[in-house]
TrEMBL record, chains A, B, C, D, E, F, G:
It comes from Ornithinibacillus massiliensis. The chain crosses the membrane at residues 13-34, 68-87, 93-122. This is Mechanosensitive ion channel family protein. It is found in: Cell membrane. The keyword Transmembrane helix applies. Its main location: membrane. Pfam families: MS_channel_1st (PF21088), MS_channel_2nd (PF00924), MS_channel_3rd (PF21082). Residues 110-174 form the Mechanosensitive ion channel MscS domain. The keyword Cell membrane applies. Belongs to the MscS (TC 1.A.23) family.
Length: 276, 276, 276, 276, 276, 276, 276
């Protein structure tokens, strides 16, 4: 009943398995040697050119070149490895179609990554060093690749985002940004007087803070809050300086209100007393 | 055991790889030369015509022409590159079907982008300079393309939205907009008197503010709030001026209430005191 | 090594490209001429008939006819253009299958739009001028098309909704609407007395306001609120007049309560005082 | 260079187009005539039988018959129209496969609608006049069709729900419903006494209100609220009368508590006073 | 030009259509007769056996048998009807493939329903009369079918849930349930004393209430609330009695606290008074 | 016209149907006999071995063996049943392809279940008796199967989770757990003193409670609350004992604070009084 | 009628089934022997090398090697098992295609896992011991595998995350992290003075706490709170020490404010008293 085991030519099988293993190992070693040489060569080339170009763009170009080199290599060596297996294991296994199916499905995700990555690079949506929001994560771009984009989050976390996950790219490092401060005044205070004080602060800050490109200006009564009338101030600032400008504006506006006796009101409530 | 390495004709292989590399590089260089020439030519043509046409429409048309030119070029050169690889690498790799599959999947996303982009342009849903909301992002359109639409967000962020992500287009720059202000009065105040004061403010503003197209009018008691009776005022304004009109209305209404002794009430609460 | 460039017959290629370009341009021009003539003819026909028919329906029919005409034309001319490319570029490019695949995917979305649009029109779910909610947007229908439906939002925004995005259609312009007002009375007030006062207001309004079709009626104690007993009044009104009726009812009910000394209570809270 | 235009037999083409147009128009007219006759015939038949049957079921059956008749007709005439186009346009256009693909995709959604609709009708999940919740919309069924179900929302809106959107059907018009009233008493009040008073109210209402099928009964202490002990009363009522019963119960319970000096407590808060 | 109409053999066509109609009607009538006979026979058989078996299981088995019978019948008669159409309409319509496609898509949903339904029945996840939560709806099972499961919601609504919508089944009628009551005591009260009082209540209830299987027990300090220390009591009860047990426990615990002078505290707040 | 009925060989048909029915019934009976015998045999074997092995692992292995046996059986008998139908009904029905399609779709879900289940078992992600969270449900595992996993929820509910719904498995019964208690102190209290008192409590509990593996320790000021400074205490406990340890810690910390006069503060609010 | 049973060669069938069973068991036993030997060999090799390499990297490499070995083995043995079934059962069952389909679907998920896992390892996104957030779970990596990644959650739970569920990887163990503390001061306090005190604390902590890499610094007025002006302090810390640094900063800042009489304000409210 167990004579089916004899049907398999064990010597032949072991030879084949061993043969494959040696070839695979040889190719893997070769892969790492070639990759290491190529990677260093590319880095050297770009290190020389760094002086002539913009730093962020140089890094992006280097990262792309490295990526294309790596995937080209991976593709070629994958070809070698498949060519080895194709003549050995597939004769062993009847279900060769399953392997093909599996590779097809695997390739699908990878192709999605590469195609998206290709257009991100082609349309220069992202440069290394940009502050961006992609796939619900925001951070500073550390590396743009054909398959993965690496972001350094504000809290220090390193996010690896596969390019297929990137749909909308929101790039916060392209052109001037807007600073916006809302400040509340009491319903009893005079809107005109408060606006005038704020506008004076705005004009002083506009001179003092060289990160401001346009404004700041008081644009008017933004809302009727529950306990305060909300005034809005906006300015256009240099890229990346919007938060600093907002903080400056907040401090200056608070101090101007203090000096002019205008109150930033606490929540109010009218109490009607009854006795139980 | 390692004689399988001899099966590969190394000289031939290297020649082939080198050959391919040179052709690809030649084509890529050619691509950038042709693209650069074409792009400038198109820009020149449209710069001349800018005087005769509406600016936003001229920019849109230029951006479309540039797009079609770029993708036409990309398509042709991709054809060249594929024709090179087809006769070389695919003979090297048995798994040519995988390449085809991969390109198919890659093309799918691209075609979705282009088809959607085509109809956005055909139906003139978006012009450069319009303020729109698409795919959850809102901003001013900087460029409409066949593959990607670029929006400049209110805070200065540049959004790259692939057209496939655009389903509904909400265009805020087509025709008059509505200004809407809700204001609360005390439950003790007379609704008729408050309405009359607000209506007078409305009529004055309607004359003063040339951005108002229709109204403003007090339309009545919108809601019974927890501590106030809410009155609603609406107006029709010129496009893009709705927020300025609302701010004007808020300031004028607050000042009119102050003059007439009508209170915008704080939250009220009835307290019933018990002793523990 | 670069002799592969000679393999391509450059003269022939350029002639072919030029030839295609001229034909495409000729067809595109022809398309716009025919479209313009057809569109005006259809408008003229419907302008004459507008007197005889209901305006909204006439506009809907015109918009449909225009749509069918446009897509019929587009279809025919697309046929011409494909027939041109089919005999030229596809011989140039080996990857003709990719083009077919791409068109198939592109067509899929378009067909979804047209099929959905066809049934929306066939079942008359939407007329021009109706106030509807589709795909999470609500507004007044400006145009119903085979591919796209245009809504004018309440705030003036123009929404372009591809028909494939439309699943449920909620049409707010078909038949009478309901006005609903909830009003709170104090836990100390007599429910019967308050109901009686409100019912009197309802009966007066029912006579005064010709937009009311049925009711209004006080239907009873809807809820025990934290600080008030909530009474509900509902009425059936003419289409589009529900909000005006609600505003009328709110004003009248508030005034009737004021006259009869029934309080709309503020939030209550029982305070138990302890000393620290 | 433009002699390719001569390749097309213009006379023949125009004749063909005209020919198709006439046939299509003839078929469309025929379609509307047959549909109109059939629709009236079906209505007549059902009007006669309305006396003998339950009204809601009769309307449902009529609506189904109308639907099947319409789609049968549409199917036949679509067959005629396709047979016309098949012998003409498809010879003109090489891309006949695209048409087939498109129809396939279009049919998919339609078939989903019809199959779902078929089972909704077969299993009698919905009758005309039922109050149901489907696909996140609730309302009274105005028409059940093979493709679309029409609901009249509570606020008067007419919802068109494609059957494919209907997964769960929640039918609120099948059998008795439950009325549920939660009422809070003070932590100081006696639970037994309050329960007894509420139970007396329940027994009185059970006799007075003929819409009540079972109960109402006080089932006990449902929760410890922040400021009150919550008692729950439930009853079984005739279909559609649950809200009226709840309103009756609320009024009666409030009045009984007033008579017996049991308080429905306001939110409580313990205040500990410190001085700054 | 209209002679194409002659191409169709009208007499033959009408005969065919009539012929099909008669056969379809005959088959439909036959279907209803056979179904009615079979349904009654199955009911009779199960009515006899009801005495010998558990009621819920008997109903489930009857409902399954009815289902299998119905779908078997439907399947056979569908076969007859398709065989009729296959030889007639499909010769009329060229697009037979569309019909096949449509049926395929339709079958997909149906098969999903039946396969899921089959495993629900095989693994006895649901019996008639069980209180379950499936597909976001909870209620008592009225009928388990191969295609649809009917639930009677707590408020009386009848939910029709297609089996494909059922992923997780949460069956609340299998084995003992847990009763859980959280009760707050003041930060000033002694935790040990309160625990002791509650434990005495628990022990008394454990004896009195025969629906309790295990416990109840005070398990300790569950949380530090804003104004109270939360103690938790849990018990194991007979199936379906958990809510009644919880209500009993709440009442008893409240009364025990009243007798022992332990306060269930209201929200506390410390007030620090400043003068403006 | 009705002579088509004669075309069907009724006697033959009935014989066939009867024949099939008998075979199906015979196979079903055989299935239940074999299943019952096999199930008991497996249980017996595992009952004997239970003494030698860990109980949870023994139950898991038994449940897997039962599962594999059941599905193996089901597979074989399904083969018999299909072989019967294949030679009979499919000759009756032309649409055999539909059956194949249907089975394919049905198999898809089943295969997803089995493959996921296989890896859950292979990687020992779940044992019977583990407390896990899968597919949004948490509970104690009652049975792990190839198709379905049964969880007993904390409230007693029995969840049937198809394995395909299981993506992440969160197993709460593998290794030590963490106990975490946050406690607030007044802004007026000394952080060092409070930390010292808590640390003393921690050290005492660490000795007393043998379920604690590491800690507990006060790790510092976790947050500035609105009215309190939040201190955090964490400990490592034996598996399943984390809640008991947290309750112990809470009680002990509260009592230590009481003894040392450190207040767990109520919400604070500063009141500024104005007169209307 | 039952003679169809004779058609099956029972003896032959049983022999076949037995034969298969024995082979399968033999292969399964062989699998476990080989796996056990291989696993131990790999562990031994890595244990020796642990001294020379970084611990986390060594563990990752070992875990990968184990994984590849296991799946390689599984693949080979699955080949044996399928080869057995292919020649036996498939001749028994007509529906061999179903098995193929099923395996294809099963393989799809597995391939997704392995491809994603491959790139996670290739790009070194995760090492054993890293603190990461993947697929909505966060924890310390216990094992990275080709199919599953195991995380130990903060509360002790062991999460098994299939690699296909991993899209974005957020690795919190790569480089320095940021500590961030927001602290509120009263609207009455001087911003400059408070900033100065905080900055002094920052400078002291910067010296004392060696886990701080950069800063901490007071960056300014982050927001106007309802009752406080919010100041923000940020620092760069060694990886994993950010929470400890934040706790240190909070304690030191609180104590510095206490010493300098700067208040961290409670929520404020302005009360306007009316009498009912």
């Amino acid at each position: 009943m167990l004579d089916w085991i004899d049907d398999i030519n064990w010597t032949d099988l072991l030879l084949q398995v061993g043969n494959i293993a040696i070839r695979v190992i040889a190719i893997v070693i070769l892969y790492f040697i070639v990759k290491s040489i190529g990677t260093r060569a590319i880095r050297k080339v770009f290190n020389r050119k760094q002086d002539e170009m913009n730093l962020g763009r140089a890094k992006t170009l280097e990262s792309i070149t490295q990526n294309i080199f790596t995937y080209f290599l991976l593709f070629i060596f994958a070809g070698f490895i498949f060519s080895i297996f194709q003549f050995d294991i597939t004769t062993l296994l009847a279900g060769a179609g399953i392997v093909g199916l599996a590779i097809g499905f695997g390739a699908q995700g990878l192709v999605s990554d590469v195609v998206t990555g290709f257009f991100i690079l082609l349309e220069q949506q992202i440069d290394v060093g940009d502050y961006v929001t992609v796939a619900g994560k925001d951070g500073v771009v550390e590396e743009v690749g054909l398959r993965t984009t690496k972001l350094r989050g504000m809290d220090g976390t390193l996010h690896f985002v596969p390019n297929r996950e990137i749909t909308n790219v929101s790039n916060h490092s392209r052109g001037n940004m807007r600073a916006l401060v809302d400040i509340g005044i009491s319903y009893d205070d005079d809107i005109d007087k408060a606006t005038q004080i704020l506008q004076q602060v705005c004009e002083r800050i506009a001179v003092e803070d060289e990160n401001i490109v346009e404004g700041p200006d008081v644009i008017g009564v933004q809302a009727f809050g529950a306990s305060e009338v909300v005034l809005r101030v906006i300015a256009k600032t240099k890229n990346g300086e919007q938060w600093a400008v907002e903080r400056n504006l907040r401090k200056a506006m608070k101090e101007a209100f203090d000096q002019n006796g205008i109150e930033i009101p606490f929540p109010h409530q009218v109490h009607i007393n009854k006795n139980a």
